[in-house]
């Protein structure tokens, strides 16, 4: 028992002789590990997040694979059995899917849907008409059967058809081809409730079977023939009997909640299935050969979605890696500082060992051995923290398991680097301990004007930020954007701390009038040398990073929101027919007119025209105050004013001031075949609806239409129309349908969400979020550094503190002094951080513009949250630091202090 | 440990110059000294006289700028840092002034000796045996399992000596080992150190303490970086260096305010007289 205890003690002495000191290393390595491991995890999480975004945006129905063919022959081949063998074809395709093992790679086995190429005629007791015969394998999900039931042979008819024809469950349903003689009879098994928007997800790709469509020529809604849902065999047999050809589709649904890695496998599975179908030995090929079917061809949006995911990952990885490595390097520097501190606190021990012949290598080996356990513990804690933080706060809740190996490799690398840093720093310090005097080289180094050199470096590094143009594909965080603010912070903080001792000579007399506590604190801060200066600089750096990252993040969020507002007008933009009218739109929506490719004279600037009702604009657009030097309501009031013979307009974008000022705003809009005099009543940097870099002329609705009519043109012909609305796309479409507006068949609706989901914007938002998280950790470390410095100072001042107490200084005055000193150091750092980081971020912001091709330019936002967090941190560290210092001072016993001091 | 009359260390014309921002500092200006083996030698002198510099060179922690120093038969001049470390490890023990500088707070007395023996390359069994003997000799055998914090100042310094002596180094250097001890404890420690020298250990001790100096077999007194005089067996001896320079005692120097003398070499000796 004693032997085991002795062995354990021996092991502890070798591995962990000073546990309290090792705790600091555990914390630092945890930060290092969290910073390093979070980079690959963040990239993986972003990949999964981008995939989830695409999955939500496109729906799993669109992302699933669909193969299609018809029973109509390719070329001029005839066969009597081609339609009836559609069942065989269906089974052959399903078998091919099974052989390709698609169900093991994220796809379901095919669900078949078939319908007639031409509608058929039906007759009922009370009337007849056209009908469409539809079958679908699997369940009729989303159908509400209101009478009867689905059977193996009977069909389901829609409620409206049942009411109109007088058919019901159990009735016979005679059907005939529309163009030929012949006939067949179906049995009605049940009646289902008519399907309306929103359709069940499984039916959405085939909405044309249920929902009306707009007839382009008449402008009227055309309802499809009622869909009679039949079992597959019944439908195929009926089609064969009527000699009506079928469209056949096989839908391979994507497994719900599929991770991105499996989604990539699904693409492979789709390709395997296509190859299995095309194989000459396959049953499908045999049927294609025998019956002349067209080979089923697949289509899926999955590769496109994955391309978007890859683009996001490609854009995100470099900045995240830069930030992660930067955080890791900073943490390694702190590990080095810890190693130096370890040597300092154990200087007696080390000096004694050096006197006995300790070599730098042996000292380094001892330090490395002592660092192993804390490093392992820190790696485990930091890895877990990094994983949890990315999982909770990252782009996706689930992190692809494939990243685990890479993360462990990164952790191992970080651990080895940490131990190596401890060893190298120790070796260097042991070497220094082993040498007497500092030598000539050290004197030369001490005379180098490091601050001036850093200042020159900062200036040189800043120049590209002034001269560089934003990259056409959008900017991102890189080494330059990370290093410049840090360099400037070092210079400013260094200059400030260098100037402090000079300040001490000036107001010295006034300081003496202060009470003891504040006087001591002020003198200690003003006379701060060495460590105190280093603390101010490093804390200013860490807090500066918090403010800088906050400013970049807030500004980019604001820039993206503003660009989205400008590019898309409102939350949802639905193009509608030029002459479409409807009832009054609900609040938060309005109709605007759009006319493109006009010329503004004089100056011949190419412009687009937006026609709005000024009173409705404020409730619909998302306006940023930075877009104009006047509030929106003032602009709209000006727009609604009387322009006399001219149409009042606002001009947004890059139109020369001289053109407007030189003509008193009296310009002409030239459309080539007619022109219009306009009066500029306001300017804006950009305006909602300005979806390109070309300037936008915003005109008042009634005045503009009157001018168009006066020019002898029909507004319905020259002015395209859009509905701009706040809210979600589905809700807006429902609302439009309810008010009688019909979306344009040619143009797709656009949304602000779709704009912000662009890979370059997503990548930048996420990378800046990551920078903010890393910066926050750096800020916390900086403030912890202030506290540790204060406690270390207190240890050094133990004797002086004891003497002061014996001279009558109260504990309260000592606490006030410590608190004020910590507060002043942290406050100075925070001041430098804010003063430097805000202009630095404003400077960098221009280069970071994620979509420089769109107005407006990057918009700056003051990061009030980050500034408040820094302020709160300073207060917190002041309170906690002064408490710790007070506790340390009171723990020292007078006798021991004086004995140690001799 | 040398018993053949060969000195444990010798210095000839030892010069040590340090660099500082304000210029060069000449800490040693040609010191000649011989440290006899198996004796206690004290180095005394006022602050700034060069005691610590001489001690560091004799302890192989530093190299002379000029001159010759030899420790345990090894000339220090020209030795690489690695060889200096090896010399320290095998042949030199060192005791700092303050007990916390010598001892690790988390090791017991036995563990200190075991670690020191490991550094010196002594086998485990030999270390255990020698350690027990040393602790017994120094009178702290009953405190062997205690941590430094549980020992008195005198006990800590005795443990520090035991740690420095284990493995029988040629030379044990002690930098003011009694500076933090009261006179009774100092006397006890000096008795213990005398016991060590009786077993053949050579000890060199820099000290301000007259009690410690009086216990030494030889006292080397430094003044302004040079040997002012030596005291051997109660007799004060001036030292003549290789260039014929000699430092006069303070009281003799006071007789020559003009710093000029007439030298008469007679059959009995050399007589210095003030020029008339």
UniProtKB/TrEMBL annotation, chain A:
Membrane topology annotation: Multi-pass membrane protein
GO cellular component, one term: plasma membrane
Main location class: membrane
Claim: Translocase is one of the keywords in the record: no
Compartments, as annotated in UniProt: Cell membrane
Keywords associated with the record: Cell membrane, Membrane, Transmembrane, Transmembrane helix
Sequence intervals crossing the membrane: 322-340, 371-390, 410-432, 444-467, 479-504, 531-551, 770-792, 813-838, 858-885
Keyword Chaperone annotated: no
Annotated protein name in UniProt: Putative ABC transport system permease protein
Organism: Blastococcus saxobsidens
Annotated ranges, domain ABC3 transporter permease C-terminal: 776-891
UniProtKB/TrEMBL annotation, chain B:
SMART domains named in the record: AAA (SM00382)
Keyword tags: ATP-binding, Nucleotide-binding, Transport
Pfam families recorded: ABC_tran
Entry keyword annotation includes ATP-binding: yes
Highest taxon of the lineage: Bacteria
Span of domain ABC transporter: 9-249
UniProt protein name: Putative ABC transport system ATP-binding protein
Organism: Blastococcus saxobsidens
């Amino acid at each position: 028992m004693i032997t085991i205890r002795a062995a354990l003690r021996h092991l502890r002495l070798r591995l962990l002789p000073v546990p309290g000191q090792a705790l600091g290393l555990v914390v630092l390595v945890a930060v290092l590990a969290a910073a390093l491991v979070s980079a690959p995890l963040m990239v993986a999480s972003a990949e999964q997040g981008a995939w989830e975004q695409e999955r939500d945006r496109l729906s799993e129905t669109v992302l699933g694979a669909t193969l299609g063919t018809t029973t109509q022959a390719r070329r001029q081949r005839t066969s009597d059995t081609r339609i009836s063998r559609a069942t065989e074809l269906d089974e052959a395709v399903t078998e091919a899917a099974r052989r390709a093992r698609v169900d093991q790679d994220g796809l379901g086995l095919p669900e078949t849907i078939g319908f007639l190429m031409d509608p058929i005629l039906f007759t009922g007791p009370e009337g007849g008409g056209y009908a469409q015969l539809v079958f679908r394998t699997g369940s009729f999900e989303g159908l509400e059967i209101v009478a009867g039931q689905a059977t193996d042979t009977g069909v389901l008819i829609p409620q409206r058809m049942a009411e109109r024809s007088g058919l019901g469950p159990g009735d016979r349903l005679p059907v005939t081809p529309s163009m030929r003689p012949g006939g067949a009879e179906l049995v009605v098994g049940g009646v289902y409730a008519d399907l309306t928007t929103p359709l069940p997800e499984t039916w959405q790709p085939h909405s044309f079977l249920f929902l009306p469509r707009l007839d382009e020529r008449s402008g009227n809604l055309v309802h499809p023939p009622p869909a009679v849902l039949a079992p597959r065999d019944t439908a195929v047999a009926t089609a064969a009997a009527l000699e009506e050809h079928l469209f056949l589709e096989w839908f391979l649904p994507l497994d719900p909640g599929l991770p991105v890695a499996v989604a990539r496998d699904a693409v492979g599975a789709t390709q395997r299935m296509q190859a299995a179908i095309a194989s000459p030995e396959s049953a499908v090929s045999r049927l294609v050969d025998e019956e002349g079917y067209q080979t089923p061809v697949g289509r899926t949006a999955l590769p496109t979605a994955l391309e978007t995911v890859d683009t996001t990952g490609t854009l995100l990885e470099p900045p995240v890696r830069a930030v992660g490595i930067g955080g890791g390097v900073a943490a390694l520097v702190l590990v080095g500082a810890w190693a130096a501190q370890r040597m300092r606190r154990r200087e007696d021990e080390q000096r004694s060992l050096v006197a006995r012949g300790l070599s730098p290598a042996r000292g380094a080996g001892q330090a490395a051995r002592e660092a192993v356990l804390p490093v392992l513990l820190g790696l485990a804690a930091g890895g877990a923290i990094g994983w949890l933080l990315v999982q909770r706060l990252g782009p996706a809740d689930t992190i692809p398991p494939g990243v685990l190996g890479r993360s462990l490799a990164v952790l191992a690398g970080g651990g080895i680097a940490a131990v190596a840093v401890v060893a190298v720093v120790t070796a260097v310090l042991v070497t220094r301990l082993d040498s007497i005097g500092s030598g000539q080289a050290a004197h030369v180094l001490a005379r180098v004007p490091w601050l001036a050199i850093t200042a020159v470096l900062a200036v040189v590094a800043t120049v590209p930020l002034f001269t560089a143009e934003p990259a056409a594909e959008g900017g991102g965080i890189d080494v330059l954007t990370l290093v410049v603010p840090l360099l400037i912070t070092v210079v400013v903080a260094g200059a400030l701390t260098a100037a402090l001792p000079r300040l001490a000579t000036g107001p010295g007399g006034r300081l003496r009038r202060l009470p003891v506590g504040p006087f001591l604190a002020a003198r200690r801060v003003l006379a701060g040398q060495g460590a105190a200066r280093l603390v101010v600089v490093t804390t200013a750096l860490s807090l500066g990073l918090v403010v800088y990252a906050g400013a970049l993040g807030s500004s980019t969020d604001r820039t993206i929101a503003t660009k989205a507002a400008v590019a898309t007008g409102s939350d949802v933009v639905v193009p509608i027919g030029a002459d479409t009218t409807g009832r009054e739109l609900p609040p938060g929506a309005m109709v605007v007119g759009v006319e493109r490719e006009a010329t503004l004279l004089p100056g011949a600037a190419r412009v687009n025209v937006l026609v709005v009702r000024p009173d409705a604009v404020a409730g619909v657009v998302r306006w940023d105050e930075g877009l104009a030097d006047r509030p929106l309501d003032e602009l709209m009031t000006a727009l609604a004013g009387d322009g006399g013979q001219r149409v009042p307009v606002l001009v947004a974008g890059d139109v020369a001031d001289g053109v407007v000022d030189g003509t008193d705003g009296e310009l002409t809009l030239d459309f080539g075949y007619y022109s219009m005099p306009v009066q500029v009543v306001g300017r804006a940097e950009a305006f909602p609806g300005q979806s390109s870099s070309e300037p936008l002329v915003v005109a008042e609705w009634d005045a503009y239409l009157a001018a168009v009519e006066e020019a002898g043109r029909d507004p319905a012909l020259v002015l395209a129309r859009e509905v701009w609305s706040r809210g979600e796309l589905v809700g807006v479409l429902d609302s439009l349908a309810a008010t009688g507006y019909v979306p344009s068949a040619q143009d797709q609706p656009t949304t602000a969400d779709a704009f912000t989901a662009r890979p370059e914007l997503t990548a930048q938002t996420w990378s800046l979020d990551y920078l903010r998280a890393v910066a926050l950790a750096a800020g916390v470390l900086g403030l912890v550094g202030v506290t540790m410095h204060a406690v270390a100072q207190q240890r050094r001042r133990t004797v002086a503190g004891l003497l002061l107490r014996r001279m009558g200084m109260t504990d309260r005055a000592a606490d006030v002094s410590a608190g004020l000193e910590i507060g002043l150091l942290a406050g100075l750092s925070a001041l430098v951080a804010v003063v430097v980081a805000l202009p630095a971020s404003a400077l960098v912001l221009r280069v970071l513009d994620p979509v420089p091709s769109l107005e407006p330019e990057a918009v700056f936002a003051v990061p009030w949250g980050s500034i408040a967090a820094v302020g709160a941190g300073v207060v917190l560290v002041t309170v906690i630091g002064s408490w710790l210092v007070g506790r340390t001072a009171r723990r020292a016993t007078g006798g021991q202090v004086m004995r140690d001091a001799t | 440990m040398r018993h053949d009359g060969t000195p444990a260390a010798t210095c000839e014309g030892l010069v040590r110059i340090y660099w500082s921002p304000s210029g060069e500092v000449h800490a040693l200006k040609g010191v000649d000294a011989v440290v006899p083996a198996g004796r206690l030698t004290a180095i005394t002198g006022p602050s700034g006289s060069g005691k610590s510099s001489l001690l560091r060179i004799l302890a192989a922690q530093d190299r002379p700028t000029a001159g010759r120093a030899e420790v345990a038969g090894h000339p220090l001049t020209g030795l690489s840092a690695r060889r200096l470390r090896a010399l320290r490890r095998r042949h030199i023990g060192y005791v700092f002034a303050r007990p916390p500088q010598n001892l690790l707070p988390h090791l017991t007395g036995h563990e200190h000796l075991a670690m020191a023996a490991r550094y010196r390359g002594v086998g485990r069994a030999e270390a255990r045996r020698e350690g027990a003997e040393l602790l017994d000799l120094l009178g702290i055998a009953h405190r062997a399992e205690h941590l430094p914090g549980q020992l008195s100042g005198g006990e800590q310094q005795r443990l520090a000596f035991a740690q420095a002596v284990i493995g029988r180094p040629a030379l044990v250097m002690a930098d003011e080992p009694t500076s933090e001890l009261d006179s009774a404890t100092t006397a006890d420690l000096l008795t213990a150190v005398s016991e060590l020298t009786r077993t053949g250990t050579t000890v060199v001790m820099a000290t301000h303490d007259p009690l410690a100096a009086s216990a030494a077999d030889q006292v080397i007194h430094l003044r302004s970086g040079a040997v002012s005089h030596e005291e051997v067996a109660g007799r004060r001896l001036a030292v003549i260096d290789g260039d014929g320079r000699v430092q006069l005692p303070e009281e003799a120097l006071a007789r020559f305010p003009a710093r000029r003398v007439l030298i008469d070499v007679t059959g009995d000796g050399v007589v210095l007289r003030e020029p008339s």
